[in-house]
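Lab meeting, action items carried over

1. Structure of the two-component assembly. Owner: GW. Status: complete.
Input record:
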Amino acid sequence: SQQGEEDPQALSIQEGENATMNCSYKTSINNLQWYRQNSGRGLVHLILIRSNEREKHSGRLRVTLDTSKKSSSLLITASRAADTASYFCATQEYGNKLVFGAGTILRVKS
Amino acid sequence: NAGVTQTPKFQVLKTGQSMTLQCAQDMNHNSMYWYRQDPGMGLRLIYYSASEGTTDKGEVPNGYNVSRLNKREFSLRLESAAPSQTSVYFCASSPTGANEKLFFGSGTQLSVL
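Predicted assembly:
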């Protein structure tokens, strides 16, 4: 069973707009990670946020974590056509397993 | 830097055939993972190896076996392939486990007819 569930399943925006994706999970976690997957490629790590952190930034990416609501969001600001990809959240409970959600497909139109 | 290397990239099998997917990492990572990706379902963990000499089942281990040959290599074997095993398989590694980021290979697309 999947721990994280992303919302929306698909998102289409214009270049320059911001994109927000959400992830909800069910149990207590140690950390939550976001990954990007370009078509036909492997996953690339974007950001890791630990359970005692509330917000992290990396370039145009901003991730928030609300452990009381068991949810996280990924914000991509000033989107570019190259941001077109699938985005996955993954959660680590306490152990060595990282469990992925089904992903959000982002399309940025130029 | 090669990172995580998977072979082969594509494979077509007939039902009942066996094969081994190979994975090697050159980053001196302790932990290695095998996932499968099916449309609309994200990635599901098949097996993982927290360190050399140990392996553990993930979410969907049935029909698969693994071998942690050494610190670099982690192979996935399908003993008797079934159409339900048609999927894209990803190997990943991490320095010490899921408390850190995973590095992924480029995947193996497997079709079982």
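2. GW to write a short summary for the group page. Key points so far: Residues 30 and 95 of chain A are 9 Å apart (CA to CA). DSSP finds no helices and eleven strands in chain A.
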